[in-house]
Amino acid sequence: MAVQPPAAARRIVIENAAIATVDAAGTEYARGHVVVLGNTVESVGDGPPPPRLADVARRIDGEGHLLTPGLVNTHHHFYQWLTRGLAQNRILFDWLVELYPSWARIDAELVHAATLGSAAALLTSGCTTAADHHYVFPRGAGDLLGASIEAVRQLGLRFTALRGSMDRGRKDGGLPPDHAVEDTDEILAASEAAVDRWHDGSSGSMLQVALAPCSPFSVSTELMSRSAELARRKGVRLHTHGSETAEEAAFCHQLFGMGPTDYFESTGWLGEDVWMAHCVHMTDSDLAKFAETGTGVAHCPSSNARLAAGIARVPDMLGAGVPVGLGVDGTASNESGQLGTELRNALLISRLRGGPDTLTARQALRLATMGGARVLGRQHEIGSVEPGKLADLALWKVDGLLHSTIADPVAALVLGALPPLTLLLVDGRPVVERGHLTTADEPAIARTCAKAARTLAARHD
Ligand SMILES: [Zn+2]
User: Phi and psi of 31, rounded to 5°?
Assistant: First the structure.
């Protein structure tokens, strides 16, 4: 009897699909194939797959489908899944002040539930890699980072856990209530411990850690500087919110005597190992500094619209060579929670500012894939469908009711409704099939999250 190869070394073949590889040349195939071997793309090309492939565990007919790289989410706050639909008509600062007291009552069990909800929404909308910026650590709340990591592992998402932090409360001129912030030294010790415990910097990693003080208006200058030093000593990346609103810019000018980007520069926060969420209110000089230093941007169009923050200068960023990816942002400011729909929203919002050619459908797809991969420093591993890269792939059905009259499959994905997701592979493993998680029961997650949201809403000081 023949010895079976280990499951990880078996092949999955997808054939007859339109393919947008999002490689450097933007190669597309009207009818092509992808062969996955274990967790890696073995081959991609036009027409049928190579004949006589051995160890084919599964052969998928991609007729009527578009295959793309899995989408990469560069900014999120998973815990906010429990506080959606609140503070509906607020700008950022008023929205934060309304929600901070509730967030300060979370614990590990609630974060675990919220992460299941957030990660499920991401996966079922085509996302294969996500960064989660967690910055609320109430005293005695348990191991919040560990809770989110456990939930993500259960669902099979490739993950960057961002150890966030806040140490500038009201008494120090910050926005959060004093009881919601941590001590600076404790934050740095916990951040270093999180990197030591969780960060896997190897190629193909399913779990990385980065350091992520929350924002200029909730973090001390000392914590910004020392976090940058710590991250560089440990070899991990840096993330924060930057230039999100006009109010933030005014806050920086008042407190620091300079705008947000100059402040970040003064604290060691520009560089190829840094990416920032939003970057809506950027001057020409700010953009030039991002371009010169290779600092990345997580563009979150729906959240920026929901909070009336403004429209980021994405075409100018791309023109200057700034790395730009897409982000859902927390689901208290983007209740959809889907990354797939952000491609369309990025395109539409960009055109409101800059006209009809400012962002094409293919540029929007590139933002959501290679752009995000570059922002997370993983452009050599994920973000495009190329031999040797990790098998993080999305197979979208574009011949159904909502898409069958759109001849260009990339236009169907970006300009049309979000297509049904027939298959999502993360690390070569099917984690979504016919639109649903293979790794968990969705109605059970919905019930768990609803109960957790009620528990949080009922908590009072
Ligand atoms: Zn955010």
Answer: -150, 100
Q: Which long-range CB contacts under 8 A does 261-266 form with residues at least 24 apart? A: 261/285, 261/286, 261/289, 261/290, 263/216, 264/224, 264/240, 265/289
* Cβ atoms 82, 110 nearer than 8 A: yes
Instruction: Give 447-458 as a 3 state SS string.
Output: HHHHHHHHHHHH
**Cα–ligand 1 centroid distance for 37 (angstroms):** 36
444 alpha carbon – ligand 1 mean position (Å): 27
Q: How far is the CA of 229 from the centre of ligand 1 (A)?
A: 23
How much distance in Å is there from the Cα of 215 to the middle of ligand 1?
A: 9
9 CA to centre of ligand 1 in angstroms: 39
- Give the distance (Å) from ligand 1 centre to CA of residue 222: 21
| pLDDT, tens digit, 9 for 90 and up, residues 151-209 | 999 999 999 999 999 999 999 999 999 989 999 999 999 999 999 999 999 999 999 99
What letters, b where the CB count within 10 A reaches 16 and e where it falls short, cover 157-192?
A: bbbbbbbbbbbbbeeeebbbeeebbbebeebbebbb
- Answering whether pTM is above 0.85, one says yes
Read off the amino acid at residue 169.
G
Instruction: Tell me how crowded residue 229 is: count the other CB atoms within 10 A of its CB.
Output: 11
Distances (CA, A) of 109 to 1, 140, 148, 179: 48, 12, 9, 20
